[in-house]
Amino acid sequence: MENEFRQTSEHPVCAEHTDLRRIRTNPDFWYPVAWSRELRREKAIDVRFAGRHIVVVRPKSGEPYALDGLCPHRQVLLGKGDVHGDAISCIAHGLRYDRDGQCVSSDVSAEAQCLHLTTWACREKGGLIFVFMGEQSLADKIPLPDFPRVKDRRYRTRRFGQVVNCHYSFMHENLMDMNHQVLHSRLVGKMKPRFLGMDHGDGFVEARYTFVRTGGKQPLSEALIYGQRRRDGRDFAYRDVMTIRTQYPYQTLRIETQGIEEPVMELWISYVPQDRDELTNRVFGLLSIKRLKVPFLLDLAWPILVAFTERVFFEDREIVELEQAAWKDLGGDHNQEVFPVINQLRDLLRRCGQRPDGVGKAAS
Amino acid sequence: MENEFRQTSEHPVCAEHTDLRRIRTNPDFWYPVAWSRELRREKAIDVRFAGRHIVVVRPKSGEPYALDGLCPHRQVLLGKGDVHGDAISCIAHGLRYDRDGQCVSSDVSAEAQCLHLTTWACREKGGLIFVFMGEQSLADKIPLPDFPRVKDRRYRTRRFGQVVNCHYSFMHENLMDMNHQVLHSRLVGKMKPRFLGMDHGDGFVEARYTFVRTGGKQPLSEALIYGQRRRDGRDFAYRDVMTIRTQYPYQTLRIETQGIEEPVMELWISYVPQDRDELTNRVFGLLSIKRLKVPFLLDLAWPILVAFTERVFFEDREIVELEQAAWKDLGGDHNQEVFPVINQLRDLLRRCGQRPDGVGKAAS
Amino acid sequence: MENEFRQTSEHPVCAEHTDLRRIRTNPDFWYPVAWSRELRREKAIDVRFAGRHIVVVRPKSGEPYALDGLCPHRQVLLGKGDVHGDAISCIAHGLRYDRDGQCVSSDVSAEAQCLHLTTWACREKGGLIFVFMGEQSLADKIPLPDFPRVKDRRYRTRRFGQVVNCHYSFMHENLMDMNHQVLHSRLVGKMKPRFLGMDHGDGFVEARYTFVRTGGKQPLSEALIYGQRRRDGRDFAYRDVMTIRTQYPYQTLRIETQGIEEPVMELWISYVPQDRDELTNRVFGLLSIKRLKVPFLLDLAWPILVAFTERVFFEDREIVELEQAAWKDLGGDHNQEVFPVINQLRDLLRRCGQRPDGVGKAAS
């Protein structure tokens, strides 16, 4: 018997597909790279996209801008530099660059005027700073994502996120796969999901679920979202519908209650690759919850909700990082998916992303 | 002069041999993977063998069993899961597997019944849980190792072990090579080993030594093992015989005193590869010491003995880890052995183990 | 658009040059490997040169000597061993080696007399222990470096250094490039360098600068070096000349004040590669400062000077380590040098060092 587990795996990875965990993020979309509150006036911040350093600068006046994050002179991180007026200066020699990426420090050295930095389209919306890392001529044609609840006073929005050590595809799968409620049973009690159906098209996959409580008490945080404490699970089983949608490259989750026009909860989330191999991602999430009839009740209960969502997020993170670790250990993807909607989602991510060799679209 | 130290080494590795540190453990034997006390009733534990995750489950009733350690659905570690009755369930989606490795969660998804886990033969003996990772049809024909002193009331047994960062071959060599007493001179005083002879055959190498004290005081812990405090080294020099035997893949060390029929000490030890490259191993050791004539004296003195053996183990571990580090640094084995018995042992380990390419036995 | 940043870089590395950060240190020079104070009588120390372990031994009497740092028997670090008289003994089996590298432990095993260690030329000077790692027949012909101020009572010398995580070439560039004063502006105020000229020849490049203060107060530590507090920058602008010279493989920095014959400050510095890839180096620096007219004033102020130089060193280290990190990240050197003297220095380091393949001189 051989110890070469990789070759003798009982479930070889299908040869005709590129391994999903090697599919790269399609850069022809707007991606969040920082929260607005992270970048003060006349400051700069270093962010990463798929291994590339980007410096985002908020000048003394006007909109933020984004440049390549390494000084072309000696490759020192520009995010460490100072902002004076409109220009960012490198910490090492003080070489200054304007928002067009042009070095404007001919006083330091005549040769410095040859130095130039790549510029990247940059926008700010809803408390997030976005960059466009793809073909720059497309930037104006591709719309920024929309999250109407963020500005709606009838909702309160929580901004959350952190770096998770896995490929972004695990994140999409995890959120869309509501069959993993067992994972959160200590937090939410026993919930049985019922799959209501799915929908898919050119750039999206959508799954709809409802739930029935089969045991355990409804947690307070859940009651807060639904606006009422429900005493008997059976009574209103299947009254709520949860819709999860990956509209490439973003993901949303919406909970609607029968008889109420607007969702009681809406989540918008984006996963931004950090390293070159895209095996870590930074999460930017906007979780909007509808305010209750009693004024300020949601605000009072806010800390409970924050703690609840943090714990759910923590449990999910453990799982996706275990999945990623097993992928590395086994040398590839051995997923044997049992939920058809997840296979649809996997096809979507493969189709919309880029093959690792960068030759073309992943599935073309 | 070049800096390419690897190539210009004065002692090139012999080309006709596979590097001993690349020889893999032969899986057609029973290997301990956990202590019985680590695995409670209705619990599961994740263990490793040469890079492979194994989940060992102790069901509600009956013997423990072993399965591949990653859920076939999404490769989540099953050792994190819960045991209900006879079945282990995955933490992520609650998919349950019985002791035959069959998924029994068709309620979660119809496709789940296609999921199946490899099973591994598993036995429990002497406070250890063993698995058989080789050709499964051989499992019943290959006997479990024997350690009769563990159940013998005239002996007390200490169970010890930890993960050591080196290939298992360094462990075998270190124990059989009693010429390294200088290493432990701060603990045991100056002891001069005298090599009495060796024996070797199909699956074993055995070395016999005796010792004479050339300086330093006999430590209390040593006196406890021998059952008496000896005042004059010369007087009883060469009265004790230490026999170290590698009976592949296990190792034993026995101390006999002239005129006493049974050994005063007997050690059984096994080194189980943890990572895929087998450059770390987990030690499982059973050290049986004969009780003294005064009842409970050995029990009273036990903490001293434990501390003594821990310190000897600590010093040995430092050396084998330095040897392993140098092997990595130099890119291969540069051993120039000066003790013939160690060369016999090295041949045995090469012969009985597996070549890294897995094509056949290492020496065939 | 592709994510393959390495290939699509706008500034490809010139193909006809070997990447400067891959050029190896030329071993045909004397390199410091330890401070004399680190090595007491009858002790040994493990040091590294370009990935090779060296043990330096100070015997009971006579000069220190250097041998390969791994015992040929089982490759255990000899630096862990004990020194008895003239010989170093290995911690594991007590095998002893004399200053010629010959094993003198035939009592342990007859085969031990075949064991032999490579010897390396070794000298001690000015509180430093040097080894010669190149062609040994050259050792006597190549002079040790000279640092006359170290023994001159009119100067006080500070010995400093630590391991810095970068290729030694970054260190040379950083010290010679006085245009990076902006980096230290919090420590030294605003200083504008004026380049006075350079000189270069067979094994050296030399740059001369003067400075004028354009803002900020002169720090006390600087006043101590110059021997007076200067109240008006303009008044004596361009009176001091700083000369930085790389005389391969060492570097010096000298500050002279107009009208004073001897330098007010002289620095000698050497960067010794630690790992095989030479991406870390250990700094050995001797900073000699001329004593002031008031006796003991310099000694009183010494702690201030120490703190000042430590902080400058700390800031420099951050930059060179960022440069090294970017080199790894980008997969090569993307430097676009804007200061001609630095390009001269880079050519010198490439010419005097060794190509990574070791076939010949880097630039031949």
Q: Can you offer a commentary on this structure?
A:
3 copies of one chain form a homotrimer. Chain A is of the alpha+beta class and 364 residues long. The longest helix of chain A has 34 residues, at 297-330. In chain A, strands 10, 11, 12, 13, 14, 15, 16 and 17 form an 8-stranded antiparallel β-sheet that branches. Helix content of chain A is 18%, strand content 30%. Chain A has helices at 168-176, 185-188, 220-226, 297-330, 340-352; strands at 30-35, 43-49, 52-58, 65-68, 82-84, 87-89, 96-97, 119-125, 128-132, 155-160, 163-164, 190-201, 204-215, 240-247, 250-257, 265-273, 281-290. In chain A, helix 1 runs antiparallel to helix 5 and helix 3 (220-226) crosses helix 4 (297-330). Chain A has 2 domains: 30-138, Rieske Iron-sulfur Protein (3-layer Sandwich), CATH 2.102.10.10; 148-352, Naphthalene 1,2-dioxygenase Alpha Subunit, Chain A, domain 1 (Alpha-Beta Complex). The first copy, chain A, contains 5 helices and 17 strands. Residues 1-15, 231-236 and 359-364 of chain A have low confidence and may be disordered. Chains in contact: A-B, A-C, B-C. The interface between A and C is medium-sized, with 34 and 25 residues. Chains A, B, C: This is Rieske (2Fe-2S) domain protein. Chains A, B, C: GO terms for molecular function: 2 iron, 2 sulfur cluster binding; metal ion binding; oxidoreductase activity. Chains A, B, C: InterPro entries: Cholesterol_7-desaturase, Rieske_2Fe-2S, Rieske_2Fe-2S_sf, VanA_C_cat. Chains A, B, C: Residues 30-131 form the Rieske domain. Chains A, B, C: Keywords: 2Fe-2S, Iron, Iron-sulfur, Metal-binding, Oxidoreductase.
